[in-house]
C-alpha cells in the first residue's frame, strides 16, 4: 500500500508534507479506493499537520463519485468546523452529486448558499445544475439558469451546450435546439458527436426524419462516425413512420459499420415486417439475431407469435410456442392472449365464446394446451354427430 511506503519514508527522517498526503489521496480516489484515501486523510493530523481545502475537497469528491453524499456533506461540515470555507470546487462536486440523485431542491438550495457565501459558480457548477434540471424535465428552470449564467459572464463550453441541447430535445423543442447548435458554431466551437447524435435522436422522436437524415449526412461529411445511439434512433424513427424497408437497410448499414444492434433494435424491425404481413422476414431476422450471439427474449417471440396469429398460421404459432419452451423462454400472459386471439379469429366460430372468456385467464402452457385440446375434441365430436 502506498500509505505504508510513505510512512516508511517518514520513519527514515523525511519531513511530512500535506501536499504529498493530498497526492496519495487523489491517487486512491481516482482508483475508487476512497476508504484508503480516508486513512491517508486521518494520518494528516497524526503527523502534526493540518488538512487543507484540497485535502477535504479530494475526499468529498471521492465520496460523491461513489454516490455517498452523506459522507460528502459530513466532510463539508468538518471542513467548516476547521474554519476552511468551502470553495467553488466543493460546491460544484456536491451539487453534481445531488443532481445525479435527482435531489434538485437540495441542489438549488446549495447553489443559493454558494452565492450567499460569496463563492462564484463557474461553468462546471452551472453545467452540473443544468444537467440535473434537464434530466428531470425542468427545461423551464434550465433556460432560466442558462440566462443567469450568461448574465454572470460565465462562458458556456461545449459540454454546457450539449447539456442544454439534451434538455430541449427531450422536451421536443427542436426549434430552440437548432438555435443552440447555431450558437455553438457562432461562438467558434465545433459540434461533436454528442451534439449531432442528441439532435438526431430528438429529430427522430419528433418524427422529423428529413432533419435526422440531414444531420446524418453532415456527420459523415465531417468525418464523425455514427454510433449505436444514432443508428438506433434512425431505425426507431423509420419503424414508427412505417418505413420498414428503410429501417432494415439502416440496420444493415449499422452492421456493416461494425456495430452490434441490441435486442430491442432487432425486435423493432421484426415487428414492422410482421405487421406488414412479412413474417418470413421476421424469422430471417430472428435467425440473424441468434447467429450474432443474441438470446431473444419473450418480447421478440411475442412479436413473431403475433405475426403468425394475424395471418392465421395457428399450427406454426403452436410450433413456435413449443420451440420457445425448448429454449427455456417462458411464455407470459401476453403470449397466451395472442394465441387465444388467433384462435378466436381463425379457429372454429363455435369456440369463440369459450376462447374469449379464457383470455386473460390462461397464463401457463398446461392450461393453454388443455383448453385447445378440449375445443379440438369438442369440434371433432360435433362434426361426427
Automatic annotation (TrEMBL):
Keywords: Repeat. The keyword Repeat applies. PPR repeats lie at residues 17-51, 52-86, 87-121, 122-156, 157-191, 192-226, 227-261, 262-296, 297-331. It holds the Pfam family PPR_2. GO terms for molecular function: mRNA binding. SUPFAM superfamilies: HCP-like. Transmembrane segments: none annotated. Belongs to the PPR family. P subfamily. NCBIfam families: PPR (TIGR00756). This is Pentatricopeptide repeat-containing protein. It comes from Nepenthes gracilis (Slender pitcher plant). The lineage of its organism: Eukaryota, Viridiplantae, Streptophyta, Embryophyta, Tracheophyta.
Amino acid at each position: 500500500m502506498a500509505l505504508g511506503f510513505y510512512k516508511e519514508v517518514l520513519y527514515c527522517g523525511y519531513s511530512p508534507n500535506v501536499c504529498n498526503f493530498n497526492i496519495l489521496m487523489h491517487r486512491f480516489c481516482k482508483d475508487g479506493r476512497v476508504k484508503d484515501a480516508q486513512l491517508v486523510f486521518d494520518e494528516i493530523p497524526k503527523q502534526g499537520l493540518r488538512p487543507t481545502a484540497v485535502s477535504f475537497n479530494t475526499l468529498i469528491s471521492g465520496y460523491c463519485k461513489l454516490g455517498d453524499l452523506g459522507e460528502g456533506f459530513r466532510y463539508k461540515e468538518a471542513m467548516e468546523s476547521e474554519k476552511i470555507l468551502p470553495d467553488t470546487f466543493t460546491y460544484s462536486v456536491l451539487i453534481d452529486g445531488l443532481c445525479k440523485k435527482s435531489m434538485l431542491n437540495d441542489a438549488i438550495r446549495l447553489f443559493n448558499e454558494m452565492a450567499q457565501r460569496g463563492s462564484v459558480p463557474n461553468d462546471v457548477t452551472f453545467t452540473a445544475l443544468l444537467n440535473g434540471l434537464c434530466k428531470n424535465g425542468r427545461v423551464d428552470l434550465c433556460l432560466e439558469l442558462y440566462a443567469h449564467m450568461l448574465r454572470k459572464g460565465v462562458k458556456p463550453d461545449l459540454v454546457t451546450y450539449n447539456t442544454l441541447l439534451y434538455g430541449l430535445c427531450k422536451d421536443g423543442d427542436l426549434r430552440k435546439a437548432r438555435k443552440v447548435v447555431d450558437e455553438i458554431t457562432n461562438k467558434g466551437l465545433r459540434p461533436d458527436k454528442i451534439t449531432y447524435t442528441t439532435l438526431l435522436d430528438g429529430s427522430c422522436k419528433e418524427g422529423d426524419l428529413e432533419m435526422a437524415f440531414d444531420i446524418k449526412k453532415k456527420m459523415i461529411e465531417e468525418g464523425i462516425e455514427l454510433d449505436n445511439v444514432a443508428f438506433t434512433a434512425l431505425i426507431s424513427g423509420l419503424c414508427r413512420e412505417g418505413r420498414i424497408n428503410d429501417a432494415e437497410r439502416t440496420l444493415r448499414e449499422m452492421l456493416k459499420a461494425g456495430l452490434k444492434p441490441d435486442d430491442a433494435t432487432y425486435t423493432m424491425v421484426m415487428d414492422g415486417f410482421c405487421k406488414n404481413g412479412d413474417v418470413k422476414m421476421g424469422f430471417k431476422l430472428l435467425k440473424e439475431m441468434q447467429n450474432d450471439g443474441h438470446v431473444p427474449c419473450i418480447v421478440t417471440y411475442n412479436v413473431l407469435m403475433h405475426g403468425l396469429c394475424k395471418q392465421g398460421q395457428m399450427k406454426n404459432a403452436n410450433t413456435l410456442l413449443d420451440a420457445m419452451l425448448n429454449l427455456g423462454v417462458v411464455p407470459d400472459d401476453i403470449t397466451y392472449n395472442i394465441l387465444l386471439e388467433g384462435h378466436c379469429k381463425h379457429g372454429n366460430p363455435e369456440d369463440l365464446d369459450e376462447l374469449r372468456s379464457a383470455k386473460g385467464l390462461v397464463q401457463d402452457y398446461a392450461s393453454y394446451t388443455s383448453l385447445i385440446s378440449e375445443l379440438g375434441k369438442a369440434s371433432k365430436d360435433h362434426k361426427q354427430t
